[in-house]
Amino acid sequence: MTASQKKKTAEAQQSEPVEEKWMLRLYVAGQTPKSITAFTNLKKICEEHLAGRYQIEVVDLLINPKLAKDDQILALPTLVRKLPEPIKKIIGDLSNTERVLVGLDVRPIS
Amino acid sequence: MAKSGKKARAVDHTLRKAPTGIKGLDEITGGGLPQGRPTLVCGGTGCGKTLLSMEFLVRGALQFDEPGVFMSFEEKSEDLAKNFASLGFDLDDLAARDKLTLDYVHIDKSEIEETGEYDLEGLFIRLGLAIDSIGAKRVVLDTIEALFSGLSNENILRAELRRLFTFLKDKGVTAIVTGEQGERTLTRYGLEEYVADCVIFLNHSITQQIATRRMRIIKYRGSYHGTNEYPFLIDEQGFSVMPISSLGLDHPASTERISSGVSRLDTMLGGKGFYRGSSILVSGTAGTGKSSLAAHFADAACRRGERCLYFAFEESQNQIVRNMRSIGIDLEQWVHKGLLIFLNNRPTLYGLEMHLVTMHKAIESHMPAVVVIDPISNLVAAASEAEVKSMLSRLIDYLKTKQITAFCTDLTTAGGGLEKTEVGISSLVDSWLLLQNIEASGERNRGLYILKSRGMDHSNQIREFILSDNGIQLRDVYIGPGGVLTGSSRLSQEARDRAEVFEHKQAIERKYREVEQKKVVVDAQIAALQAQYQAEKEELEMIIARENERDEASAAGNLALARSRKADEFTTRPETIGKTGKGGRK
Q: Which domains does chain A have, with CATH numbers?
């Protein structure tokens, strides 16, 4: 990594809270209790930690089964952080907030 | 309606099976894998699990019109396509024709964070879609255990696996699930507890640096199956299993006789040669002409227009062709005509079972009438004696059921008992020829015996075995008061014999001439005696005649005198004399 790149990264990190947009995608299969729990939990975490900087897209694989293969989805529900890169995957009903924050790489506001 | 009817029939009858199309596997499973049920294929790394399952799909798609889904948890679809292209499987083409769907499931623990409850519905949806989109009848999951290393909640996984197998059964697909061998268990994560119908175990073991692949069917619910460990082979044509150990002793016995290629040897074998479909063993020490005898046999088969498969474990094809040309056998012409096929392999190239499988495959594809194995003793280099014996007995059994005549040569080590084969298969063979070096008066000569030849009258005599420019010639050995003579001593003895005979003949002729001469002498003597007799006889007759004349004259004189004296007539006297003359002549 060159010096200029390093600088850029540092700048990006600094300006992160202002500029960065969180694009999250939640894969579910129908309205199961697990998927509803997951969505509720996700909404809550995002509101707490990423207010105004996030966007949630819910993908129902029962409607779009092809996406399961294309996006390498195995377990449900799966939360995918499309942005910022790199892509991260969190599976489960997101009931463990700590782990979701670690998975999303969001530092909780202390 | 039709579906339920089908199901009812399946319950009524025995288990329905999905043929794999893999050589040998269908035989040991009695027709294939259980249809509509999952089968577990397990074994260590590199034992051929992926290959077996992929071939199951490809053959299913090509031969049985059953499309398949291959869900890989380890290899990417592109890599799979590349790997299988080398085996002649065009996966891309099959995928384009909707005969096969490849799905690579990527799991990486480092990329996944687990937060609470989840299930594997995503996997089910993927699999369901793949099956439905091409109407798949066969599914492979290779290897589903990757889930265990990718996801940490084992409780969920186990529950989901159970659900997965139910799902597969409900879909009615014939599935193969592969599993890596565990330390003490069949599979590392105990997959066997979910798959209850059929478990196949693959093994890749190495003994004395030589690898052998074996397969065993551990369980097959509701079906008969072979229980042994069967060797199998992976080569450019894919997977092949050999069910040979299941052979019995019920092979046909032909009464047809075939020539050994050496007419004198045929004479020794009841005048007709070997039985077709019998096994022949030629044993002898180094340089006794075993290969030459084998070449004669092969040549004779090709002359009859039969196909011959020649397994050579010591020499290359070119070397054999060159060497045999020196004794006047042109094997090359048969190679060109496609009647003679050489398979040259070093015994140590691979394990014994592999040799057997290779031979088996070659025999299946070439369908020869005769097979030459030169020599069998070299196989010992690849395994222990007991293994070689078991392998050869299986091979011989196999050849017999196919009515293929087997001609094996066996190198016996000098110093050991001659009437003992290196690999102890003498009891298995039907005809056993022994070639032996006879050492006498500073030279080695070859001798040939027939130790045994089942079911025919055969010569018990030793023959001298000569390799000439015109091939093998058998000569009677000289058996005289000085013992058995061969080689130059036989020649000189024969020359002596010839001289003796000549002398004898001359003596007889001489005697004959003497007798002839004697006869001439006797004849001459007889003639002389006869002449003498004739002369005497003539003299006698003359005397008698003269006497008669004199008598007549005197009688006439008397008569005249009597007439003149007027005496009585009498005539008796001259008649008496005439009678006496007649008797003397007789």
A: 19-104 (3.40.30.10)
